[in-house]
Amino acid sequence: MPKQKNPIIEYRDYELPIGFPVILLSGENWHISDKRSGRLHFHNCTEIGICHTDSGFMEFDGEKHAFRAGDITFMSRHVPHTTYSSPGESSLWSYLFFDPYELLMRYFNDAFPHAELCREMLENSRMIMSGADHPDIDSTVKQIIKELQEKPLNYQFSVTGLFLSLIMQFLRVYNADKKLHPQSKNQDNIPSQLIPETGVKDSDLKLKNTLIIAPALYYIRTNYWQDFSVEMLADLCHLSLTHFRRVFQEIMQTNPLDYLNTTRIQEACTLLRMTEDSILSVSERVGFSSISSFNRHFMAIMNVTPSDYRKDISKAEKSSILKYAGWMQAQVPKD
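Request: output the structure for the sequence above.
Response:
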């Protein structure tokens, strides 16, 4: 019996403009065929798509997911997938390809609230959602497309702001789906209130506290693999240990140790995806003293074991990869 060939996966490399890393692909060239491609593909950047007409399917993670007109998709970079229309249909799409880190780097620092959750969403998302069910997302995506098509005065600044809003809207959907914090209320919709006896706005105090703990956040991000104490982090911020823990929990919605472990696990995910290092080696590189501790924290944060996480990624790693420049118009699969 002949040996079964590994599937071929295409890598599509989009050269995004420096300084404004955004590309819009839209128009009549972007009718998607009803012929299923025999190949999955992935990109070097984040993809947001909006389906204007008809219906069809997207395939990723070994499963087929239906879409219809009005749906919006969010695909992280490096997620193998393919899209095709329903039989006899030819769905029309617009696509946004962008680098969220370069575009919004001034915001996505370690002081950014829920930074780990945001990074997780940007690196691990596969979302299909109804525009009717998410009118704010639908409106923001369409406004970005309009700005990029018409290019009015200072449209780059407008698009950057709209992307920041869009990422936050996606983040809320992602957070709700993951149910990471079912015990806490959504603070985003609570008006700023005055703190008794101070006359200081709560939002202003949070910003001040964020700046206070910034040295600790920076140290964790640049030294996460090392062994250090929470007391040392408090000293960096010139705070007592008790005050530091309280402020950190208030701003980051997690305690310093959990924040450190989450950072380590996120870095471990990158190593598991991008290297062939053993799980033991990965655990040591990100700062865990034992494999059992690494496995326990990985499972608690990612809801999957390190070996199963790598097994899912290996579908792409074990496939033959073809590198192409990013397609600038839809391709029709050959019979």
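Residues 180-209 have pLDDT under 50 and may be disordered.
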